[in-house]
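User: Hi! I have a protein structure encoded as tokens and I'd like to know what sequence might fold into it. I'm fairly new to this, so please keep things simple.
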């Protein structure tokens, strides 16, 4: 039960984070996806194009590094690190990344879902690799998310923080 509660609470919170991040990024990038017009470095190696769907940019590298650090902040402040909680953290982080990318298209007034599904033919140059109508990187992320969540659910661990919160709420 506690594993399920952690997962559901985390997923709901990540939907909110993904929405806020997408709205922020829409305001930063506008209609120029993948930091096309931002003054930052770009690394266009094949590995990055395959995994990310486009070039690695300085903007995205530092943003993702910042988010990785923020998702791990609870371990620094109050949560004892465990492999189980690391699996949950990485799964939620990957879920937030992919959902934010999709929300960027959903809430960006410069794009439509139809353009998103068309990929390069719809003007989405930075996501040319597709598996069906979706960017190939979505498949890679989905596999990673499922692996992290499965490892989280099967790894034994302690949920002392959640127990403490639930005890305080019930008294």
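Assistant: Happy to help. Inverse folding works backwards from shape to sequence: for each of the 171 positions I chose a residue that suits the local structure. Here it is:
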């Amino acid at each position: 039960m506690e594993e399920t509660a952690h997962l559901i609470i985390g997923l709901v919170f990540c939907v909110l984070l993904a929405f806020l991040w997408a709205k922020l990024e829409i305001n930063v990038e506008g209609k120029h996806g993948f930091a096309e017009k931002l003054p930052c470095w770009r690394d266009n190696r094949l590995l990055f194009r395959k995994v990310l769907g486009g070039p690695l940019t300085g903007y995205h590298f530092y943003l993702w590094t910042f988010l990785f650090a923020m998702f791990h902040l609870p371990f620094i402040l109050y949560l004892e690190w465990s492999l189980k909680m690391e699996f949950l953290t990485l799964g939620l982080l990957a879920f937030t990344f992919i959902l934010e990318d999709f929300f960027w298209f959903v809430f960006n007034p410069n794009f439509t879902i139809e353009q998103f599904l068309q990929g390069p033919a719809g003007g989405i140059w930075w996501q040319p690799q597709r598996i069906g109508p979706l960017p190939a990187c979505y498949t890679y992320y989905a596999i990673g998310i499922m692996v992290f969540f499965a490892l989280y659910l099967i790894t034994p661990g302690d949920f002392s923080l959640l127990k403490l919160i639930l005890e305080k709420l019930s008294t």
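A useful reference point when you look it over: Residues 2-29 form the longest helix (28 residues). Feel free to ask if any position seems puzzling.
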